[in-house]
Design goal:
The complex is a heterodimer of chains A (265) and B (276).
Chain A (H helix, E strand, L loop, with lengths): L5 H28 L16 H8 L1 H34 L5 H13 L2 H14 L6 H26 L2 H9 L4 H29 L3 H6 L7 H11 L4 H24 L8
Helix pairs in contact in A: 1-11, 2-11, 3-6, 3-8, 3-10, 4-6, 6-8, 7-8
Chain B lengths: L2 H21 L17 H8 L1 H34 L3 H12 L6 H12 L4 H8 L13 H25 L3 H9 L4 H29 L3 H7 L6 H11 L3 H27 L8
Helix pairs in contact in B: 3-4, 3-7, 3-9, 5-7, 5-10, 7-9, 7-10, 8-9, 9-12, 11-12
The chains are: A mainly alpha (265), B mainly alpha (276).
């Protein structure tokens, strides 16, 4: 048996500590969500669901929670549709400037999101549109489309175009080929993109910051405003609910379509 | 197929950025001021007050420290993820690195507040044990901001770096060992230089994200540290100075574009298809 050198042992120890550093805050948040004390104390004092009760009965928290959900659902629907169509056009369309177009569609990822929010806000003020739900929705769509395009183009580049040609040669029209051949093959990439879009929209802060109407906060904005003045564990309960939600979405999709294969590095 | 996306981006991304650039060159807000003229005063204002120069300096400093410490945290993780032969270990590490990304930035910043604040986990525990009489000031300063930014941004660096280290040809390292180089020498003279594109790319990405962060600096800094995004928000929402806000936005845009350019140059030197 090969003996392991001390350097390997130290290296692994360091990595376990680093993973602990990455996971520690999540553990702390979940711990405090179930803690009965008003203030953060360590070690935790007792088990309680009072902060969850406060979160689920507070009209401000609930209002912003459902607004964020609605926003995220609408964002996913539009950006998945528009993004997938654009991805197909870029990869298959043989259009001039395909590289430029893909750079354009990915650029909201490269630029600071806070600037996308700022520029849209100033634009809405100039055209006198103000801060509306629809304006906010458009902002979310613009910053989530890059994720859909990236995952869809990856799948499109990786699949064998001759499968489509075979369908066409066997007499399928362009629409039938798309529906019965192309779409099922790219579905995993599209789904992965829409999960990213959902999470990015639901947790979105910098774009919402400028665009949200003060009376109609999204959940991240409401949490942020709440944290500026109070520090009680209701925020921890709200966080635990959204963590549980994200994990559920990812796990359900992992087991139904096998997400991991398609979220490539 | 392309037109809905193109139309959307033209109207709600390119055009607004154009409007912002024009606004930064105007003397007032064209909506309520009919006598606006072109001027450079919004940019000159930056050089007139030492406060603005300091804001810029603090922002870049936070970006730099965050990038350096993210690299120290991220490199060992990326190295093991790229090199482990066990699929289980790789999957588990990937999950551990990615799972913080499922948690929103507000929540992750809140988590660090509960740990580092004067009544937080660390201070409360140390006081309980009788090791402290006065709390340690772990937040409301640049240290707290950088620590939470490192936590929030390290996953981005790990993803970039793992791809690059994973594609290093192992036979190069074996050749160095066969020629008599020790483990350390092989690492510093073969592995590290070959990882350089990933190191540069990942750190630049973290730097770009750190200088444009808003939530973390404001909550961890407790309003005592002002960075460029905080100043931009104050100018727009507090003072309604659209022109100056737009000029500050353009400066942030310019710095980010330079960083993105350097990032692409670093990544292109290495391989195609490794991107974030």
């Amino acid at each position: 048996m090969k003996t392991r050198g001390w350097d390997i042992i130290v290296f692994r120890g360091v990595n376990i500590a680093l993973i602990g550093f990455l996971l520690l805050p999540i553990v702390v948040v979940i711990l405090f969500a179930f803690n009965s004390a008003e203030f953060i104390v360590f070690p935790p004092e007792g088990f309680s669901l009072r902060w969850f009760h406060k979160f689920f009965t507070d009209p401000d928290f609930m209002g912003s929670f459902f607004r964020s959900l609605k926003l995220a659902f609408l964002t996913v629907i539009v950006s998945t549709g528009v993004g997938t169509m654009a991805a197909i056009a870029i990869v298959r369309g043989k259009i001039p400037g395909a590289r430029f177009l893909s750079a354009l569609f990915l650029s909201p990822l490269m630029l600071p999101a806070i600037l996308t929010g700022l520029a849209l806000f100033q634009f809405y003020v100039i055209i006198e549109a103000g801060r509306t739900f629809w304006g906010l929705l458009i902002g979310h769509i613009v910053v989530t489309i890059p994720y859909v395009i990236r995952t869809s183009t990856t799948v499109l580049y990786n699949f064998d175009i001759s499968i489509e040609e075979a369908a066409m040669n066997l007499g399928a029209g362009p629409w039938d080929t798309f529906r019965h051949v192309t779409l099922p093959l790219i579905r995993p990439g599209v789904i992965a993109g829409s999960i990213f879009a959902f999470i990015v929209s639901f947790d979105q802060f910098p774009v919402s910051l400028f665009l949200v109407n003060p009376g109609e906060n999204t959940l991240p904005i409401h949490l942020f405003n709440y944290l500026k003045y109070s520090f009680d564990p209701t925020v921890a309960a709200a966080s635990t609910v959204s963590i549980a939600m994200s994990i559920t979405v990812v796990l359900v999709l992992e087991f139904t379509v096998g997400l991991q294969e398609y979220v490539r590095l | 197929m392309l037109s809905p996306g193109l139309l959307l981006f033209a109207c709600f991304f390119v055009l607004p950025l154009g409007v912002m650039s024009v606004l930064s060159l105007l003397s007032g807000n064209p909506v309520n001021d009919p006598n606006v003229s072109f001027t450079l005063k919004n940019y000159l204002k930056l050089t007139e007050d030492i406060f603005y120069v300091e804001v810029l300096w603090v922002t870049l400093k936070i970006g730099f420290y965050t990038a350096v410490f993210s690299l120290l945290v991220g490199f060992p993780l990326a190295f093991q993820m790229a090199r482990t032969r066990s699929k289980t270990i790789r999957t588990m590490m990937l999950m551990a690195v990615l799972s913080p990304m499922l948690v929103g930035i507000v929540v992750r910043t809140y988590a660090w507040m509960t740990i580092l604040s004067d009544q937080g986990v660390i201070n409360a525990t140390l006081k309980n044990w009788g090791w402290l009489t006065r709390p340690l000031h772990l937040m409301y300063n640049e240290f707290g901001i950088c620590l939470s930014l490192v936590h929030i941004l390290t996953p981005f660096l790990v993803l970039t770096l793992t791809g690059v280290i994973g594609r290093i040809d192992l036979s190069l390292e074996e050749a160095a060992r066969n020629l008599g180089a020790g483990k350390a020498r092989t690492f510093f003279e073969v592995t590290l230089p070959l990882s350089m594109p990933g190191i540069m790319g990942g750190s630049l990405l973290v730097f770009a994200l750190a200088i444009s962060a808003y939530v973390t600096p404001i909550l961890m800094g407790g309003f005592s540290v002002i960075t460029l995004p905080i100043l931009i928000y104050q100018q727009i929402s507090g003072v309604f100075n659209f022109g100056f806000g737009a000029a500050l936005g353009l400066i942030l845009l310019l710095v980010s574009l330079v960083v993105v350019y350097l990032y692409h140059r670093a990544m292109r030197r290495f391989a195609r298809g490794v991107g974030v």
